[in-house]
Structure prediction request, 110 residues.
Amino acid sequence: MYQALDNEQPALYRPQWGSSMASNQVAANQGTANEVWTATQRHIVLASFLGWMLDAFDFFLVVFVLQRIAGDFGTDVKSVTYAIFLTLAMRPVAHSCSDASPIITDAGRR
Prediction:
């Protein structure tokens, strides 16, 4: 399956193109570059991208109006930014809790 390089130590190997591993790798790569997406696949990719983009746009809108938000809640900008930080910092904790124990996280919904 492997052949030693010419005039090299036997520890250096390369796959032979006639071997099953190399031919399987070539066969696995064929056809993927020339495939055409269906209309449904294109719509899904576009919707995913737009959702991601609008989520980021929403966050930046909040950042741009921090003074107005702080004024509406009667507090300073530092407190509002700290609240946003805590919200974003707890997202991984919430995800790990929901992944680790769905029984505990779903208990309040029942």
Q: What stands out?
A: Strands lie at 2-4, 13-15.
